[in-house]
Design a protein that fits this description.
The protein has about 140 residues and is mainly α. Helix 2 crosses helix 3. This is Reverse transcriptase.
Length: about 140
């Protein structure tokens, strides 16, 4: 093996410590419009009109889930049989929600009862009362 031929070294054309861009602090780098575009389908489901939670059966009840699946398939085939894909995608969620709500019903809102005091907290209360009586 012979020595490799070295090409003559040349000076770089660009200076390393200088950039070609003007980087002043006055220049505005922010995005012109940061707000999201208003879409028409957002108005279809306003946030104030919340859907009720569905009282779904446990996952172990396979028969109920199979019945639900068959109901959804029949309803979608009858309503959206030959419609366009966009129409199917737009109404699929509403159809499934309505069938599930009709089949299983909505969850009942449970009122929260105040938390119970623990045994130690009750003992501390009785000790405080006894201490007050002694004074």
């Amino acid at each position: 093996m012979g020595c490799l031929c070295m090409s003559p070294q040349q000076q770089r054309t660009a200076i390393a410590d200088k950039t070609l861009e003007n980087q002043s602090q006055v220049q505005n780098h922010s995005v012109e419009e940061i707000q999201a575009e208003h879409r028409d389908d957002v108005a279809r489901h306003p946030s104030s009109d919340k859907r009720h939670k569905i009282n779904f059966p446990p996952a172990s009840s396979v028969k109920q889930w199979e019945d639900l699946d068959s109901k959804i398939v029949l309803k979608i085939d009858s309503l959206l049989g030959k419609s366009t894909l966009e129409n199917k995608l737009a109404t699929f969620g509403d159809i499934v929600y309505q069938i599930c709500l009709d089949t299983f019903g909505a969850k009942q809102h449970q009122t929260k009862c105040p938390p119970q005091r623990s045994r130690r907290q009750l003992e501390m209360d009785t000790l405080r009362k006894q201490k007050r009586k002694l004074k």
